[in-house]
């Protein structure tokens, strides 16, 4: 069985409670189930990691870089200055998708640039929890193409 890494950064462990008008009412558990359902037909499972600290996220990327076929990454505010997370993801060879629940470009100016996005295979923003499902679908497709399937 193949696995994908579902990596969530600071403050995402309290989804559903934290500013639901911005981030929605779905919990991280709800999102994990959605992603798992999306990739199950391909025979994939999900390794879900949520941490508040950047170093712990870096450790998770390194720990799973040789054992996963791809990743969905919501770095939260680490998108702005998560340089060590960026370096860890630069060493992560499988495809990965950056996801943000809110439309970061419709928010404060400091959220308008991601140090991670230039390395990502794709970026999904502003679609709430649906963005994770779309990222999972994209990851499935990217891995098929990478495996030589049309």
UniProtKB/TrEMBL annotation:
Substrates-to-products reaction catalysed: 3-dehydroquinate = 3-dehydroshikimate + H2O
Positions of the catalytic residues: 23 (proton acceptor), 100 (proton donor)
Residues involved in substrate binding: 74, 87, 101-102, 111
Superkingdom classification of source: Bacteria
Record site: Transition state stabilizer: 18
InterPro entries: DHquinase_II (IPR001874), DHquinase_II_CS (IPR018509), DHquinase_II_sf (IPR036441)
Matching Pfam families: DHquinase_II (PF01220)
Keywords tagged on the record: Amino-acid biosynthesis, Aromatic amino acid biosynthesis, Lyase
EC id: 4.2.1.10
UniProt function note: Catalyzes a trans-dehydration via an enolate intermediate.
Subunit structure and binding partners: Homododecamer.
Sequence similarity: Belongs to the type-II 3-dehydroquinase family.
Protein name per Swiss-Prot or TrEMBL: 3-dehydroquinate dehydratase
Source organism (scientific name): Streptomyces canarius
Gene (name only): rifJ
């Amino acid at each position: 069985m193949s696995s994908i890494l579902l990596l969530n950064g600071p403050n995402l462990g309290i989804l559903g409670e934290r500013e639901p008008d911005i981030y929605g009412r779905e919990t991280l558990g709800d999102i994990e189930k959605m992603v798992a359902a999306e990739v199950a037909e391909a025979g994939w499972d999900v390794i879900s990691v949520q941490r508040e600290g950047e170093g712990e996220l870096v450790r998770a990327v390194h720990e799973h870089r040789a054992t996963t076929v791809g990743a969905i990454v919501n770095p939260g505010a680490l998108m702005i200055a998560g340089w060590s997370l960026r370096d860890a993801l630069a060493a992560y060879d499988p495809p990965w998708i950056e996801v943000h629940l809110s439309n970061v470009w419709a928010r404060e100016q400091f959220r308008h640039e991601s140090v991670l996005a230039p390395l990502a295979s794709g970026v999904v923003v502003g679609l709430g929890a649906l963005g994770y499902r779309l990222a999972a679908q994209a990851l499935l497709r990217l891995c098929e193409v990478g495996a030589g399937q049309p």
